[in-house]
Design brief:
Order of helices and strands: HEHHEEHHEHEHEHHE
Number of strands: 7
Radius of gyration: 18 Å
Helix content: 25-40%
Structural class: alpha/beta
Strand order of the largest sheet: 3-2-1-4-5-6-7
Length: 269
Amino acid sequence: MNKIRSALSASLLAVAVGVPMHAAADPIPVDLELVLAVDVSGSVNDPRYQAQKTGYIEAFRNPLVHSAIGSGVIGSIATTYMEWSGATEQSQQVGWTQISSAAAANAFADAIDATTRAFSGLTGISQAIDWSVDSIQNNDFAGTRQIIDISGDGTDNTSGDPADARDDAVAAGMTINGIAIEEATSISLTDYFANNVIGGDSSFVLTADTFEDFEDAILLKLQREIDPNGIPVPGTAALFGLGLLLLAGGGRFSRRIAGAPAQRPTVMA
């Protein structure tokens, strides 16, 4: 939000002194700044990695996401695709990109498709959140909303504390949402994410039972994040109905969706 205030102040100053408002120093206004933070730790083998990556590619090629982007007041979002693993392993695979058309969304999908895997180490959720906060604060955009989208298949096993990183992100005005991929865990990763990872305004975690379910899950999740007015708040019967419609083609994912504990209880479909 500080970037938004700076942009407004710069605009008012430009009007007062007659300076062109398209000066390079001005952040670009968008409806949403979105970090796609993707777990590529050692438990994510090559088929799982490809399934997760394909989910993001196909989502940005989907007309439902194109429509969600166009529905905003500005009709534009800024997003970046990064991969993370251990404490010092964060890689921005596709840089911050403004998307305001189907063609731009498809080009972003192509850019993701062209990347190669960055890491295969430990699971540093805390540091991935810290990296994402810094990236949002230092990009060239000013979003009315700022979301960090964490996908993962395990708990943090580094020295960091995801809850502390989450609290710092929320204090900075950001929201963290998650997809918990339960395939490789022996605990409820959805509950772990709900208690330790997600936070901020209307935050939620969505469960994918397996990596094969990820594509359906990320499509629904991105629609909700990009157009919160078009997709009901997770946990409602309407959202479950939409999930069923999306899954009619044969894919599936668990429709168990949890919000941050202080906001709403875990919901079972």
